[in-house]
Amino acid sequence: MSVVMNDLGIVRRNIKRADRTATENLSRFGVATVHEAMGRVGLMQHYMRPIYTGAQMCGTAVTVLLQPGDNWMMHVAAEQIQPGDVVVAACTVENTDGFFGDLLATSYRARGANGLIVDGGVRDVADLTDMKFPVFSRAISARGTVKATLGSVNIPVVCAGAIVNRGDVILADMDGVVVIPAPLAQQAADAAEAREANEADKRERLASGMLGLDMYKMREPLAAAGLKYID
User: Fold this and answer.
1) Bridge partners of 164?
2) What is the pLDDT along the chain (231 residues), one digit of tens a residue?
3) Most buried one in 53, 59, 125, 211, CB count within 10 A?
4) Beta-bridge partner residues of 137
5) In whole angstroms, what is the distance from residue 142 CA to residue 136 CA?
6) Phi and psi at residue 194, to the nearest 5°
7) Quick check: helix, strand or coil at residue 96?
């Protein structure tokens, strides 16, 4: 990601977060449903994976810009966390060092964080799993970090290919991580609800034995494309 010098050494406080009710509504849906409902946008890269099976989270973003091999700003970010937040950490260059472990998780949880998204490494995975503190990361690495170089907190970042602004809604589950812009949170929740209702009807018909070929009216276009059946 590109960073200008004016972006560094900044902590924005008292940020505006997405509407709480809209955020809670979005938490009812899966990442795939919301991603599709929004027009297939906002998805982070596929390499962002949960550190333990079943991890999931939904909350408003506190963004962090890290320097490679330096987790100083992760500690700075802790002060800005409010209950229901998700910390989203990007790095100025690709880096997989272990920026986060169980001690920081203990601090974040005490502040009310719902989890962490980090486009970098994480360690103390066994402890984080026992704590049930959700983390989605680029890598797992025991390699430690230093505290020497300024980054920033609550500025726009690009995390795993997705633009994240402070206060956006972050939804993560076993399918991946999706970013919902704060102004569109309720609209996305409404679209996700409509999509879920539509899928429930389709699921019922498929369970009754109907084929997707017929439900989606695929036979005619398949024939036009040249599909032939041979007995």
Assistant:
1) 157
2) 444 446 799 999 999 999 999 999 999 999 999 999 999 999 999 999 999 999 999 999 999 999 999 999 999 999 999 999 999 999 999 999 999 999 999 999 999 999 999 999 999 999 999 999 999 999 999 999 999 999 999 999 999 999 999 999 999 999 999 999 999 999 999 999 999 988 888 999 999 999 999 999 999 999 999 999 999
3) 59
4) 49, 118
5) 16
6) -65, -40
7) coil
